[in-house]
Amino acid sequence: xxxxxxxxxxxxxxxxxxxxxxxxxxxxxxxxxxxxxxxxxxxxxxxxxxxxxxxxxxxxxxxxxxxxxxxxxxxxxxxxxxxxxxxxxxxxxxxxxxxxxxxxxxxxxxxxxxxxxxxxxxxxxxxxxxxxxxxxxxxxxxxxxxxxxxxxxxxxxxxxxxxxxxxxxxxxxxxxxxxxxxxxxxxxxxxxxxxxxxxxxxxxxxxxxxxxxxxxxxxxxxxxxxxxxxxxxxxxxxxxxxxxxxxxxxxxxxxxxxxxxxxxxxxxxxxxxxxxxxxxxxxxxxxxxxxxxxxxxxxxxxxxxxxxxxxxxxxxxxxxxxxxxxxxxxxxxxxxxxxxxxxxxxxxx
Length: 349
What we know:
The protein has helices at residues 18-25, 54-58, 74-81, 85-95, 113-122, 133-147, 176-185, 228-232, 288-303, 308-321, 325-331; strands at residues 16-17, 32-33, 44-45, 50-51, 69-72, 103-105, 126-128, 151-161, 164-169, 189-201, 205-209, 217-220, 224-227, 241-242, 245-251, 266-270, 273-282. The protein contains eleven helices and 17 strands. By secondary structure, the protein is an alpha/beta fold. It is elongated. The protein has an eight-stranded mixed β-sheet with strand order 14-11-10-8-9-15-17-16. Strands 2-7-6-5-4 form a five-stranded mixed β-sheet. The protein has a two-stranded antiparallel ribbon with strand order 1-3. The protein has two domains: 16-147, Udp-n-acetylmuramoylalanyl-d-glutamate--2,6- Diaminopimelate Ligase, Chain: A, domain 1 (3-Layer(aba) Sandwich), CATH 3.40.1390; 151-303, P-loop containing nucleotide triphosphate hydrolases (Rossmann fold).
């Protein structure tokens, strides 16, 4: 079987428009536009990092990263206030002569009139937020990091099962959507069907979502297109979820050796993050939905420190090494295994 996770094409945005940035952030981060001129479509943000232009205000622009979003906190505003009007004009003209995407003033600081006037002339949007600088910077870095994150698109169905993100993969027509539909009917939540867009967040987190076109629509062969949100309600969907386990569905092959203990977890690397992968053979009559729920619950057990396969392995090793194994196995057991209780004690249920 070909490795569907090898050589996956990666993609990422080269830029976002300042207008898009403002539209997405104005309510989230309480941004208000201070300049009057309409935001030009040509104004774009190309970097996810921010910059505080302290040295540039002081006159050193040799290493001024003007292509980044500029943040004016208390330090920058107070520095401008202590300058004379003429000095302030010279300083701001020098700073705003660069092609800056936009400028954000934090802490609801009053923006100097000279700054607003020159920024409007240069077509540089100025925004104001009530958040303190450090907190606001964390918000914006997270937003921009998400916008410029590396992404991949996989063919599959993505479901939140007991809070665990299960990504079902497999050849076309193997039953991914049908299993997902059954899980939704049992109270779990659909994230995406058919195409799953996966983005890297932080160093070891992958987030999955659907496409803007498909959203929570689903194709069921023989039935057609259905809308999960309309049929099952808001409780049956979510817009994003962390990818935690990949379940690859495959036709049963009697010649293939399948994992029967779970001691050796298989991992697949996506965008530099290792994700647990389970190969699940299917055949008519096999209840994949229940198995999927158990996969999620078993993942939670391991996440909280309990690994059933390892516990059973230790018990088996201890039994084999036991000095009493000869008498236990030969006298008090069948085929080398005794029952788990020595006396039923009138318990006949």
